[in-house]
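hey m, so remember when u said the tokens were messed up on ur end? i reran from scratch. heres the input so u can diff it against urs
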Amino acid sequence: MSIQTCRMILFINIYTGTVIMMCAEGIFWVRACAIWEFRKRMMAIFIISGLLYTIAGHAVLSISGSEPNITKSPIRVTSCLETGGGSTIIIAYAITAMAEIQIWMFMLYKAIASYWREGTHNRLLGRLVLHNTIYMTCGLRESLSH
């Protein structure tokens, strides 16, 4: 496989991975907004923080600006090696993790406040918080293990 083909495959991989992450995070955000009943103040907080995280992620990727080096592998089984760009990915994942933790904290606060205010356990709210906790925990665990 040529270096150009390897570079094209890398960029397709990065693009599809980014789209998948944005869709997953979008679902996470929409569920959090639904839990807060789409209140204007919370929607403003979620939109502003989402924009700040997006700007921070774009800034990190723009500042690094260096393309990863793709070289021919001496091992015939693998055709290309990618080197460099590791710290940029770590920072991008850290920004994503911070956004997930923020959303999860808002959801957890809403669940606890709802329980204390109403005195009843809202099963739907409990399930949504549980599912988002599992999603966030698995995402963070997978990010840290790689």
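this time it looks ok to me. Strands lie at 69-72, 80-83. if urs says something different then somethings off w ur setup not the seq
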